[in-house]
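User: Show me a protein chain along with its predicted structure.
Assistant: Here is one chain, sequence first, then structure tokens.
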Amino acid sequence: MSDQPQNYRELEKSIHTDLEDRLTYGKYLRLDDILNAQDRLSDEHDEMLFIIIHQASELWLKLAGHEVEAAIRNVEEHDFRHAFKVIARVKLILTQLTQSWSILSTMTPVDYLKFRDKLGPASGFQSYSYRKLEFLLGNKNKRLVEVHRHDPGVYDELKAVLEAPSLYDVVLRKLAGDGFAIDPGKLERDFSEPYERDESVQAAWFAIYRDPEKYFELYELAEKLVDIEDAFQNWRFKHMYTVQRIIGSRPGTGGSSGVPFLKKAIETSFFPELFAIRTDL
């Protein structure tokens, strides 16, 4: 019978312990950089929460953008199996991001106001990863790129994404390639301009939804896009509500009106025809 305590777990002999000059978990993930990147501007306890929530959110947003870029390539290459996989992943990433607002909302208004003034003009509105994700999904706005002009590398990359076809744009090209009569003006246009709802696109989606067995691949793709918008809107709403809970009607640190500005985003749709046809079915 062993003399070890019941809760003791013996270190297995096969586990590597001599890791000098070898790749380790910490080195691979650059944990020294990540875990020492929380440079607080105050001694307030909750500033650590504020920083980590936003840093983690930026990583998730970066991953979401990476997956949408893959989805764009997949649709262009007609690889719908992989496109469905990565789009489903984006939905779950956005769900994870939505949950993060619940953690941040444990910070009370009094807690936040103790260090808010030290943030200066720094604001989530300046999030490069968020802006890139919105552009990739199709919510284009040339003026928003100007916020990043101070960082030439970021500015140039965002401008390139702004001017390139979004996920929805390549999906519409796929519809046209499959024989649907999509207005040519929707297929070759200035992609840096906001997308406007179109009757020819709506008619195509209506036909697909009326006969899902015949067009199952496109029907499934449409539902995957709706999944993304659903999850994105939940994230937007929770963001707005968390800001309202913490700062009320105060302006945002980046100069926006705060909650009213965030509410306007909730009215924006990436894929307007996919919601419009639900009324007509």
